[in-house]
Design goal:
Layout lengths: L2 E4 L6 E5 L10 H7 L4 E5 L3 E3 L2 E3 L3 E3 L2 E2 L1 H22 L6 E6 L1 H12 L6 E5 L17 E7 L7 H13 L3 E7 L7 H14 L1
Parallel strand pairs: 2-3, 2-8, 8-9, 9-10, 10-11
Antiparallel strand pairs: 1-3, 4-5, 6-7
Helix pairs in contact: 2-3
Length: 199
């Protein structure tokens, strides 16, 4: 997978996952706001939707191609193992920072693999899959940034995701704003404060 790796001064690595149409450059400023000392692994989605990079296919707005989601989640999980060997970072200290489509694939890692992430900051995510048993995520810190008036990700999606992750044992914090689907500076600052408390 096309990516950027920047070695940091701490044991932690931030896995950056952009939104639809984004690139591996998009969330670099966000990572600096959250943890300037962490290593950075920023990945570009390798699915193209009308020329826009994504991490997995969808059938239409808000409806995921589940088969492709499962396959791409497995691909990302394997990529993380390979990258940790190549760059020498601790696979057990990877914390995801995902926005929109990137938040969805990060959420999908949690829905499919125990121990895939040390924590996650999910900005405007949806429930990746329903009706499946989620692996044990005991005590896993998860921050969800959400919009009360988000037209792409309804508030109920956030509440459902919080409930499902909490039922799997995750320690979930939700931060609400009223700026639609956009990722705001105040949302990132709230995530950075949460991050300091957790890690």
């Amino acid at each position: 997978m096309k990516h950027i790796f920047q070695k940091g001064n701490s044991a932690r690595t931030l896995l950056l996952l952009h939104g639809t149409g984004g690139t591996e450059q998009d969330l670099l400023p966000v990572a600096k706001m959250i943890d300037p000392d962490a290593s950075i692994l920023s990945v570009k989605g390798n699915v193209s939707e009308n020329g826009m990079p994504r991490f997995f296919k969808r059938l239409r707005e808000g409806v995921f191609d589940e088969e492709d989601l499962i396959e791409r989640t497995d691909e990302l999980n394997n990529f993380l193992a390979d990258a940790s060997n190549e760059y020498g970072f601790d696979r057990k200290q990877v914390i995801a920072v995902g926005y929109s489509n990137g938040a969805n694939i990060a959420g999908s890692l949690l829905f499919h693999y125990e121990g895939s992430l040390r924590g996650a900051m999910l900005f405007h995510p949806m429930v990746p899959r329903r009706g499946i048993e989620i692996p044990e995520q005991s005590g896993l810190p998860v921050f969800i940034g959400a919009g009360e008036n988000d037209p792409i990700c309804p508030a109920q999606e956030t509440k459902d995701l919080e409930e499902l992750l909490a039922a799997a044992g995750a320690n979930v914090t939700v931060h609400w704003e009223r700026m639609g689907h956009q990722l705001t500076e105040s949302e990132v600052r709230a995530a950075a404060e949460w991050y300091k408390d957790q890690f």
